[in-house]
C-alpha cells in the first residue's frame, strides 16, 4: 500500500491563484511529501537541519581549537582511506582513517606541542585503496583551496588555515557599480574549475574559491568591501552537474562510478560531458529488530554535501544568496535536451520530472529561508515550471526569482531574422509580459551567453564591424551606428520597465562592449586577449560608448527614483503595428516607444489612466514637459 501523501499547508492558495494547476494536486502532494519526509528524517537522524548543513566544519580536513586535525570523508566504495601530504613526507600509509558506519571514514591527528601537525599552506591528498586494490590519490570533495602550478595539468589541494584573518582595506572596486546604479552583483566562475574555458561551469572543487583570482581571504575581503558600499553579492552556484575529472574532481572519488553521482548512463550529461548528481543517494541498512528484516533509508550524503556547500558560501564568505545554474537540467530526466516547452501544464508533471532533484531544491530554499531569510535565490529555468518561485509551504520550489530567459532569445531572433519594418509590437509585448502570476522575474536583454565567443552581443549584432571604425564622435554619425545606438537604448529600457521585477546586465554590455569574451583554451592558443572587459572605452570622451553608458546609468537612477520594478505589472495601453508604437504605464510613469524605422510623430495621442502634466524624464530633451489631457 502506498504511503499517504502530505499536503502542503498552503496548497489551496496556490490552486486558487492558478486554477489550471488543480488537476495536478496529487503531484504537489507527492512532491511535498518527499520534501517533508526527508526533512523529518534529517531532523530525527542528524540532529536537525542546522547541524546537518554545517557538515563542512567536520568533513574534509579541519583544525580543532587545540591545534589538532580532524578529518572525515564519505567513500562508501573504498577498502581503506589514508591521508598523505607534505606533513608526513607523502607516506601513503602512515595516517589511516578509521572506518565508520555508512561509508564514512575519520582520522584524528593530535597537535604537536600545541601546534597543528598540518601547517597552513601544505599540500595534501586523500589516498583511497579501491576495491580492485589500486591506490588513488584524490583531492577531498570538501577541500577549501586548490591551486595549479604553471607546469602542471592537475590541481593540488592546499590546506588553508591562515594564522590570522585579513584586515579590511579601503577599496574602490565597486565604485563603477555604484556610479551606474546597480545595487547587486552576481559573481560567476567562483567555484573552482580546472578547465578555464568552461566559464566556471565544470566544477571540480565545490568548496574552493577559484585560485585564479586570489586566495579565499581575497574573496572574503572583496565581498566585505561590496557590503560596505551597500552592494549585494550573489554566487552563481552550479549544483546541476560536476566535472568528469577524477584526479582533481569529484568523479570516481572512492574508485567507483557512482559515489556522488548516478551510475551508468543516467550519471552522465550527454551534452555537457559531465557527471550528474544522485540527489536521492541513500545508504541502506538492515534492521533486525524483533526478528524483522527491513531496509531503512538512513543517510543522504549528496544532500549533506550540497546543502553544506550552500551554507559554507553564506557563512564563511558572506554571500547574500545564489543564482542556481542549470535548473532545467535538474528538474527533468530528459534535462531539457531536445525538448521545446510549449507551456502545456502536462509538461511539468509526470514521470519525466526528477522529483528527487526538485526535492533537493526545495530543501535548499527551505534551509536558506529558515537559517538565512535575508538571502536571495534565483532559478535559471527555461521550461517555466509552475510555482518554482512560490513558497515551499504552497508546494512550490521556494525560489525568490526566476530568470526571464525568453526575453534575450526574442531580441536576438528579431534582430537576426526580421527587417525593422517587420517587427511585431504585439509579439514583443507578449514576450516581455508573459510571466507567471505572483512569481518574480529578472528581466534582461542579454547576458554572458551572448557575450561568449561564438555568439554576439546586442550591440555587435546591431552595429557589427562599424563599432571598430565609426564610434568616434569625430566621425560622421553613420546610419548603422545611429540605428544601433538608439535601438540598444530602447531595447534595454523597455526590457527594464516592462519585463519583470528585477533587471540584469552582464558587465560591459551596458555600454555596448565591442568584443566577445573568450578564455584561454587550445582553440585560441591559450590566449588571454579576449578574457577582458574594456571599461576604459567609457572614459574616452571621443568615443560614443559614453552615450550608451550614460543612458544605462540614467535608466537605473530613474528606476531607483520611481521604483517601477517593485510596482505591479504595467498596463499596456497601445501596441500599434503599423505605427510601431508601444505605450504602457507603470509606477505612475508613461512609457512610449516608437520602433518605426523612419517615421517620427508629432502630437501623438495615447490613452492614460490619470490626466495631467508629465515631465519628460528620459529622452534627448529632458527639459520639455508633455501636457497630456484625457
Automatic annotation (TrEMBL):
Residues covered by the Glycosyl hydrolase family 13 catalytic domain: 143-494
Reactions that this protein is recorded to catalyse: Transfers a segment of a (1->4)-alpha-D-glucan chain to a primary hydroxy group in a similar glucan chain
SUPFAM superfamilies the record matches: (Trans)glycosidases (SSF51445), E set domains (SSF81296), Glycosyl hydrolase domain (SSF51011)
Keywords in alphabetical order: Glycosyltransferase, Transferase
GO molecular function ontology, one term from the record: 1,4-alpha-glucan branching enzyme activity
Any one of the GO CC terms: cytoplasm
CDD domains: AmyAc_bac_euk_BE, E_set_GBE_euk_N
Single biological process term from Gene Ontology: glycogen biosynthetic process
EC number: 2.4.1.18
Active site: 325, 380
A Pfam family per the record: Alpha-amylase
Pathway: Glycan biosynthesis
PANTHER family: 1,4-ALPHA-GLUCAN-BRANCHING ENZYME
Family classification: Belongs to the glycosyl hydrolase 13 family. GlgB subfamily.
Protein name: 1,4-alpha-glucan branching enzyme
Organism of derivation: Hirundo rustica rustica
Taxonomic lineage: Eukaryota, Metazoa, Chordata, Craniata, Vertebrata
Amino acid at each position: 500500500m502506498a504511503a499517504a501523501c502530505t499536503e502542503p499547508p498552503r496548497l489551496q492558495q496556490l490552486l486558487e491563484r492558478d486554477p489550471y494547476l488543480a488537476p495536478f494536486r496529487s503531484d504537489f502532494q507527492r512532491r511535498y511529501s518527499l520534501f517533508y519526509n526527508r526533512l523529518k528524517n534529517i531532523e530525527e537522524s542528524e540532529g536537525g537541519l542546522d547541524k546537518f548543513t554545517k557538515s563542512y566544519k567536520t568533513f574534509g580536513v579541519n583544525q580543532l581549537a587545540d591545534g589538532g586535525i580532524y578529518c572525515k570523508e564519505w567513500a562508501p566504495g573504498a577498502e581503506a582511506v589514508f591521508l598523505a601530504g607534505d606533513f608526513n613526507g607523502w607516506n601513503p600509509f602512515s595516517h589511516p582513517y578509521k572506518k565508520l558506519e555508512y561509508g564514512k571514514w575519520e582520522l584524528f591527528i593530535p597537535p604537536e606541542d600545541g601546534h597543528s601537525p598540518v601547517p597552513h599552506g601544505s599540500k595534501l591528498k586523500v589516498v583511497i585503496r579501491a576495491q580492485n586494490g589500486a591506490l588513488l590519490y584524490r583531492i577531498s570533495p570538501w577541500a577549501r583551496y586548490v591551486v595549479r602550478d604553471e607546469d602542471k595539468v592537475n590541481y593540488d589541494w592546499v590546506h588553508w588555515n591562515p594564522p590570522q584573518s585579513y584586515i579590511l582595506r579601503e577599496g574602490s572596486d565597486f565604485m563603477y557599480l555604484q556610479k551606474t546604479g546597480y545595487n547587486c552583483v552576481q559573481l560567476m566562475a567562483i567555484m573552482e574549475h580546472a578547465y578555464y574555458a568552461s566559464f566556471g561551469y565544470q566544477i571540480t572543487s565545490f568548496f574552493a574559491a577559484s585560485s585564479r583570482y586570489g586566495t579565499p581571504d581575497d574573496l572574503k575581503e572583496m565581498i566585505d568591501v561590496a557590503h560596505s558600499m551597500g552592494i549585494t553579492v550573489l554566487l552563481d552556484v552550479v549544483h546541476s552537474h560536476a566535472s568528469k575529472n577524477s584526479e582533481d574532481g569529484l568523479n570516481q572519488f572512492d574508485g567507483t562510478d557512482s559515489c556522488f553521482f548516478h551510475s551508468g548512463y543516467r550519471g552522465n550529461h550527454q551534452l555537457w560531458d559531465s557527471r550528474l548528481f544522485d540527489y536521492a543517494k541513500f545508504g541502506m541498512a538492515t534492521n533486525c529488530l524483533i526478528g524483522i528484516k527491513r531496509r531503512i533509508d538512513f543517510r543522504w550524503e549528496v544532500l549533506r554535501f550540497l546543502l553544506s556547500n550552500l551554507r559554507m558560501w553564506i557563512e564563511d564568505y558572506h554571500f547574500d544568496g545564489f543564482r542556481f545554474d542549470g535548473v532545467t537540467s535538474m528538474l527533468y530526466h530528459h534535462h531539457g535536451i531536445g525538448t521545446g516547452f510549449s507551456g502545456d501544464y502536462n509538461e511539468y508533471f509526470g514521470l519525466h520530472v526528477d522529483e528527487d532533484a526538485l526535492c533537493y531544491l526545495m530543501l535548499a530554499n527551505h534551509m536558506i529561508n529558515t537559517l538565512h531569510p535575508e538571502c536571495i535565490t534565483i532559478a535559471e529555468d527555461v521550461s517555466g515550471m509552475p510555482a518554482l518561485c512560490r513558497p515551499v509551504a504552497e508546494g512550490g520550489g521556494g525560489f525568490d526569482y526566476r530568470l526571464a530567459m525568453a526575453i534575450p532569445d526574442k531580441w536576438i531572433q528579431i534582430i537576426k531574422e526580421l527587417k525593422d519594418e517587420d517587427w511585431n509590437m504585439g509579439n514583443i509585448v507578449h514576450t516581455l509580459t508573459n510571466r507567471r502570476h505572483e512569481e518574480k522575474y529578472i528581466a534582461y536583454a542579454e547576458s554572458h551567453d551572448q557575450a561568449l565567443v561564438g555568439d554576439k552581443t546586442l550591440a555587435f549584432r546591431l552595429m557589427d564591424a562599424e563599432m571598430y571604425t565609426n564610434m568616434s564622435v569625430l566621425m560622421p554619425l553613420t546610419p548603422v551606428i545611429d540605428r544601433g545606438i538608439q535601438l540598444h537604448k530602447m531595447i534595454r529600457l523597455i526590457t527594464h520597465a516592462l519585463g519583470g521585477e528585477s533587471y540584469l546586465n552582464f558587465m560591459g554590455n551596458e555600454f555596448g562592449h565591442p568584443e566577445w569574451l573568450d578564455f584561454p583554451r587550445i582553440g585560441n592558443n591559450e590566449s588571454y586577449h579576449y578574457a577582458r572587459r574594456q571599461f576604459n572605452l567609457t572614459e574616452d570622451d571621443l568615443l560614443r560608448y559614453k552615450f550608451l553608458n550614460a543612458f544605462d546609468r540614467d535608466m537605473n537612477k530613474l528606476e531607483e527614483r520611481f521604483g517601477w520594478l517593485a510596482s505591479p505589472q504595467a498596463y499596456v495601453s497601445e501596441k500599434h503595428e503599423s505605427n510601431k508604437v508601444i505605450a504602457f504605464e507603470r509606477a505612475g510613469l508613461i512609457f512610449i516607444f516608437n520602433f518605426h524605422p523612419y517615421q517620427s510623430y508629432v502630437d501623438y495621442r495615447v490613452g492614460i489612466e490619470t490626466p495631467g502634466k508629465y515631465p519628460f524624464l528620459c529622452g534627448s530633451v529632458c527639459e520639455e514637459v508633455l501636457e497630456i489631457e484625457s
